[in-house]
Each structure stands twice: as structure tokens, then as C-alpha cells.
Amino acid sequence: MSKIKLKAFDAADYLSSEEDMQAYLQVALEDGDPKLLAAALGDIAKARGMAQLAADTGLSRESLYKSLSGERAPSSETLFKVMKSLGFKLSVQTTHG
Q1: Could you list the pLDDT tens digit for every one of the 97 residues in the chain?
Q2: 84/71 Cα distance (integer angstroms)
Q3: CB burial class (10 A; 0-12, 13-18, 19+) of residue 64?
Q4: CB of 38 within 8 A of CB of 64?
Q5: DSSP 8-state code for residue 58
Q6: What angle do CA 96, 27, 48 make, to 5 degrees?
């Protein structure tokens, strides 16, 4: 019996347009989980290039990979630096039950 080799799923492979990235980030924000937000930003950063993000934020690539892995919630300072460097901004809306 032959074995099938599968490639691990990487969301960054499917984030090919700005619209895809924005929609992906919006869903992560709506979930309300800071770890999921960090992971989504990490996927977007990988799709665009982590080295450029490191240069833009002044953070090391290693630090960014750790912070945006989704294993822990990064500091708000890191989140805001990353979002700004990726060209995203947060906006506030009221929610109605």
C-alpha cells in the first residue's frame, strides 16, 4: 500500500489579494480571540513577506513569528505596529443584541 504525502495547510497560500486579506482579518476580529487575531495577522504577514514587516515595524523576524503564531496573545503595542505596517486600521462599531 502506497502512502500519500500531504502538504500542511497554510492560510498564507490562499491570501492572494487585498480583499482576501481584509475579509480574513475581519472574520478574525469578529471572533474576539486575541490569539486568532495574532494568527491571522501572521498569515497575512507571511503572504506579504515577513522580512519586509520586520523592517517596517523594527521588530525582529523571530519576534514576529513568535508573536503572530497564534499560540499566545501578543502585546497591544505589537498588534498595533503590525496592523499599521500591514496597512490596516481598527474601527469601532456599536453592537446591538
Answers
A1: 789 998 899 999 999 999 999 999 999 999 989 999 999 999 999 999 999 999 999 999 999 999 999 998 899 999 999 999 999 998 888 888 6
A2: 22
A3: buried
A4: no
A5: T
A6: 145
Length of the chain: 97
Among 3, 91, 1, 76, smallest CA distance to 41 is for 76
Q: Are 43 and 9 in contact (CB under 8 A)?
A: no
**Cell for 67?**
508573536
Q: 61, 59, 60, 53: which is closest to 86 by C-alpha?
A: 53
CA–CA gap between residue 82 and residue 53 (Å, rounded): 7
78: how many CB neighbours lie within 10 A of its CB? Answer: 19
Task: For the chain, report the end-to-end CA distance as a whole number of angstroms.
Answer: 55
